[in-house]
Write a sequence for this structure.
């Protein structure tokens, strides 16, 4: 019997996959527990509709991320810090401060999207990556002044 998986099942199949399995296993486990449905024309058509809707949603999210990237690439955040002898900065700029700075400029970015490669603990300009979507990374500048 051929079934269409509607949920992921470890070591058996992923959602949307069509697989041939034994009749008893399909009826007594997969279908009964809601992991799969019998492969029919109607169920295949529903799978196609779901896949097209998912592709459209992914494309829309990526387009939105690209738009946001264009806006963020021109953003420079300025932070005023206290310094000691030789312009040594006390402390560093945190991800939370960057998030708040972006929020003040009207951008809603989560902390886990902000990627700081080196600690921002010196005066001058620093680049910070914002992960908006897989393979869509915006780069903002952080300017630390005294």
């Amino acid at each position: 019997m051929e079934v269409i998986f509607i949920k992921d099942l470890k070591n058996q199949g992923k959602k949307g996959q069509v697989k041939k399995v034994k009749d008893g296993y399909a009826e007594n486990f997969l279908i009964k527990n809601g992991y799969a449905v019998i492969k029919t024309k109607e169920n295949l058509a529903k799978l196609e509709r779901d896949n097209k809707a998912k592709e459209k949603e992914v494309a829309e999210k990526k387009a939105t991320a690209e738009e946001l990237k264009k806006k963020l690439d021109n953003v420079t955040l300025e932070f005023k810090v206290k310094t000691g002898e030789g312009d040594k900065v006390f402390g560093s700029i945190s991800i939370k401060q960057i998030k708040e700075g972006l929020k003040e400029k009207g951008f809603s970015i989560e902390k886990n999207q902000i990627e700081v490669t080196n600690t921002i603990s010196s005066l001058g300009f620093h680049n910070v990556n914002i992960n908006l979507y897989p393979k869509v990374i915006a780069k903002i500048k952080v300017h630390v002044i005294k």
Notes: The chain has three helices and seven strands. The helical segments are 23-31, 41-72, 95-104.
